[in-house]
Design a protein that fits this description.
- The structure holds two protein chains of two kinds.
- Chain A is mostly helical.
- Helices cover 73% and strands 2% of the residues of chain A.
- Chain A has a two-stranded antiparallel sheet.
- In chain A, helix 12 packs antiparallel against helix 15.
- In chain B, helix 4 packs across helix 10 and helix 7 runs antiparallel to helix 10.
- Chain B has a two-stranded antiparallel sheet with strand order 1-2.
- By secondary structure, chain B is mostly helical.
- Classes of the chains: A mainly alpha, B mainly alpha.
- Chains A and B meet through helix 1, helix 2, helix 3, helix 5 and helix 6 of A and helix 1, helix 4, helix 5, helix 6 and helix 7 of B.
Chain lengths: 312, 307
Amino acid sequence: MMASTIRHTAFTPRFTFLNLMKREKLPGWALILPTLLIVAGVTLGPLLYAGWLSLHEVGLDIRANMHFVGLANYVDIVQSPTFRNATGRTLYFAVVSLALQIPLGLAIALLLNQSFHGRSIVRALILLPWAIPTIVNGALWQWIYNASYGALNGLLYQLGIIHAPVVWLGSASLAMNMVILADTWKVLPYYAVLFLAGLQTIPRDLYDAASVDGASVIGKLRHVILPSLKPFLLVILIVRTMETFRVFDIIYMLTSGGPGGATTVIGYYTYQLTFLSLQFGYGSALSFTIGAVTLLIAIMYIRILRTEETLD
Amino acid sequence: MNMQLSNQSLHLHLLRYRLGKYAIRILMYASAALVVLETIAPLAWMFISSISEGRELLSMPPRWLPERPTLERYESLFITGRVSLLGATTSSPAGTMLRGLYNSLLIAGVTTAVCLMFGLLTSYATARFRFVGRQAFLFGILALQMLPAIATVIPLFFIFRMIGLVDSPLSLIITYSGFTITYIVWVMTGYIRSLPIELEEAALIDGATRLGAFLRITAPLALPGIVAVGILSFLTAWNEFLFALILSHSLGSKTLPVIISEFSTQFGLDYGMIMTGGVIASLPPVLLALFFQRYLVQGLTAGSVKG
């Protein structure tokens, strides 16, 4: 039956794009062309254009206001203490996030890898924070952290932990950690899903063998589970490090970079300089730098994936 | 005597073993409950805030459950366009929410559909054909897929302004296609490569063309993968914020995240209203995540671990 339907279509003469393809007058690259065009048009092309813009002083009216300044914008970046602070905060965000989220994500994955009643429901539910828009996540946590009426202060007050409201987003030392906490709530599912996928690649025999050898729970974790999860851990480390450059939505919503710039990470800093201070040339230099660094990390990531592939 | 003693100690051992097992199970259920609570409580609070009266939201300590739940805010966002908080009535532009919902659906939907169509053709070519630079093409695509929005948003802003496309849904569809199609090609190339080629070859021998064989044999087999990347693409476009913020200025193209980000300046302290917007914007992704959980997990892992 399958064969007859195929013959039928093969002999239907219609002059469509698909028909052209059917005669295979067009080689494989014709199928790749649309993708190439999109990639060139909205990712690679703009990135290079950002590189070009970064060599200029650019005003909002780009046709009238574009003066070549060479590498001046990059010199400014290197010399700017604000940039150094933003980079430092981005690193802080990355390190604290990873240090908090890797153990938590692993713990959730280990739990979800056990068999218990309602496991499939729990597995479905934990995905929800990851699915909701980051902007909504930001709005939600802004409300929860609200100093006067927020749920967090309310809860801590009712539990007798605090006696006066805490201004969670008002102090420089607290704000960044609270942003990280709100972000952690949203991204934990990603860790859990990846670690769970990793755990499921460990053959049952390996656990059994470890049990026979008298390994304790900790021993199993150290000698069976963690080594098997190494590739997944690497992926998470690299992908999440790259993603910290992306952190924008939640900062925009929760703190707008404040208080006093305490949560101005590199992504938000670039946005501020470009679209609030209208320094398009300087902003482009930042953009291009972020893009280049991301691509470098991506190449590293690809190298690792390739060696994993050859090992397979 | 001796026998009895060892029997006793055996019992003790067994008891301890059983107790230990119970303790572990109790611990397991307790931590599962904790994980569920940690996940659900903020979401539940968002919903509860959206149906509580304004007076209750502004009480300390908070009222965890509303005395008289009200759908007034949903009504005002969708129908009347008037918002009341503590007796004062402000007007919200009627239909803002509806328009945002429409824009978000249109932009995420069209992006997903177009990218699936072209992305699958490309994936098939890179999976089954040999051509010069195939490997470089694939890895290049993977690297570019990881570019953050902040790296390209400035040039795209100028480019779209030059060609007069700023503030049109089309500019967002085109922009989102950049990271959507690269994601689809990266995942689906690996997926198609893992499918058996024999059936396709049999169809070719029967006189089918390569594309016919792909559409009739391979594409149906790849359906689970297609659903997975489709859902993930839709969610990414639905949730995107930075591009939408920069490239849309009026209701003609503003998506839900942009509209919600403006709520706080619009409604001030009325978090109930902001939470209502949040619930509406979260509903489609939440439903997708619940109903297509397995596909979502597949799309998420395939995107980062294996091509």
